[in-house]
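Reviewers of the previous submission asked for a worked example of the structure-prediction workflow described in the proposal, so we include one complete record here. The input consisted solely of the amino acid sequence. No template or homolog information was supplied to the procedure at any stage.
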Amino acid sequence: MPRLKTSQPRRSARSKVLEVRVMSPRIAWLSLLAVVAKCAKYACTAAVIVGIGWGIWHGVERAFYHNPDFNLQVIDLNPNTALDETQLAEIADLDLSGSLFQINVAEVVKKLEARSEIASATAERHLPGTLVVRVVPRIPRAWITTPDLVFAGSRQPGMMLVDSSGIAYACPAQHVELAASLPVIVLPTDPGHPLRAGETISHPQLKHCLYLLDSAVAADPEAAHWIESIRQSSAWSLELVTRDGTIATFGLGDHERQIANLRASLDHASAKNLAVKTINLIPRHNIPVTLHNEPIAPKAIPVSEPTPASRRESRHSQDLNTLLNRN
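From that input alone, the workflow returned the following structure tokens.
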């Protein structure tokens, strides 16, 4: 038994010697060649794949990108008041002689929606050579300006408009005719509430002015044609100026009654060939009125409390007739 134990270490030593002798330089070189051959095989396979891919891409490029049949031939733009085809090509930087497949439609949409006068846009390629673009322009609700810009011209391209969502945007040239009859809302300059194109107007006075404008349009759909401007003149009153130069003072509420009294006053003054200069519509029973050709100080005009529609106009007519006959 002891001899058997001493023979095991000798056998393991012999096996180690054999292993060392087997790893000769010749075998190492052959192993290296095998590795190189395997790498070359992979490289050849990759080269074949790349070649096939390049061939496919070259074929696609020749069949589509360099095929004159797929050049941009038509820009199909829906009728709108924001831009035309020429402006679209300039804004989207379109190559009018290039391939339809070279146009990045996502980038076209991004550039269009970056314009403050456009609410949304879509763009699609329609083979063989048509770019279809649909834009939704903002619908103007009123002009927005500040006191220092009122006399410089408020209804011009580039001036601010506000849409139904309260977002300000610069008026494009195509929009001027559409917005020419809209009133001007004058907001005081406030660094805390700047007017920025493409952003919602946060000025607190805007909602009061829009409330009066909406009340006037609800009472008379043609109100936009006879209202020149609206502004908040104090913490408790609004000032509305008509296209004829009448200055009307409104409260912050009860606009339905005040609009009815204003319309009745203007109609009756016009029937007498007179023009109302100022009118304070806040009082419910006595409405102060001055006329452009009135030689004496303003007088309070007794006006009875508005009643149902059938009686309100007749009473108001009598009161105004009394004043106009005196003058």
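The chain has ten helices and 13 strands. We consider this example representative of the routine output the project will generate in years two and three.
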